[in-house]
Amino acid sequence: MNGAEGARDTARMKAVLVLAATLAFVMAPFASDSFGGFEPSLFPVPQDDPPVQPAGYAFSIWGVIYIWLIAHAGYGLFLRSDDPAWDATRWPMIVSLVVGAPWIAVAGMNALAATAMIWVMLGGAVLALMRAAGHGDRWWLAAPIGLYAGWLTAASCVSVGLVGAGWGIVLGALGWAWVALVLALVLALAVLRRTAVPEYGAAVIWALVAVAVANMGSATILALAALAAAAVVAVTLAGMLRQRG
């Protein structure tokens, strides 16, 4: 076996692993209860209806993410197995998806462990997105990774807010919701400036609007701030897309 053949075989192996990890990730909710937020009892200070958490409908985005990730993995294996642009995304995606497969089960038992895991998932997804952005096959490569990474950006920051409030660290539930909101906005703008992938921005906007919906009438200033953050993400993304022509 020469070097080129060995490299192609390695790339195909990674493509197979991406598909296997994706299927494990997608099947995980069927092996445990669906996730709509951490149980309040997991925290020393129970988090009943925390202001940092998006409205329940927002979690429906996972249906689109799951379907698109399966399409991404299948297309990558059968049509782009030895494409260098695709191959560059595979190890980060494998790490993210393998850590993500048991995430729902862990989240039902230990919020701290789940928070650490979701940040690892985010790191892998964002690295994969940065490697995918700007290459061909956008709808099969960057778009599904972007939607996944965008939701994880919001979810990771929500987890930080829940842990801070749930362990009674200084700021209280509303204060930690503000921390999570600012953190999500800063991270989202940083990733957008590196990638300009619309689906990433769309997922973040979806989450921010859902935070606004959850807080309208109870924490109205926070709700308006979440809407303002969503608008900032939208305007930033629109400007970057115009510059690209």
Folded structure, characterized:
This protein is mainly α. It has one domain (3-28, 54-244). The protein is built from nine helices and no strands. Helix 1 packs parallel to helix 3, helix 7 (172-195) packs antiparallel against helix 8 and helix 8 runs antiparallel to helix 9. The radius of gyration is 18 Å and the shape is globular. The termini are far apart. The model has no long low-confidence stretch (mean pLDDT 93).
List key phrases describing it.
mainly alpha, single chain
Biggest sheet layout: none
Q: Which structural class do the helices and strands define? A: mainly alpha
Strand segment count: 0
What's the pLDDT, averaged over the residues? 93
Estimated radius of gyration: 18 Å
- Counting DSSP H or I runs of 4 or more residues, the number of helices is 9
> How many domains make up the coordinates?
1
Give me the strand/helix succession: HHHHHHHHH
Query: Which spans of ≥5 residues are poorly predicted at pLDDT below 50?
Result: none
Helix content: over 70%
What separation lies between the terminal Cα atoms? 45 Å
What general outline do the C-alpha atoms trace? Answer: globular
The amount of beta strand, in percent, is under 5%
What would you say about this model in short?
By secondary structure, this protein is mainly α. The protein is 73% helix and 0% strand.
Furnish the topology, listing elements before pairings.
Blueprint lengths: L2 H25 L33 H19 L4 H17 L2 H5 L3 H22 L9 H25 L5 H24 L2 H18 L4 H25 L1
Helix pairs in contact: 1-2, 1-3, 2-6, 3-5, 5-6, 6-7, 6-8, 7-8, 7-9, 8-9
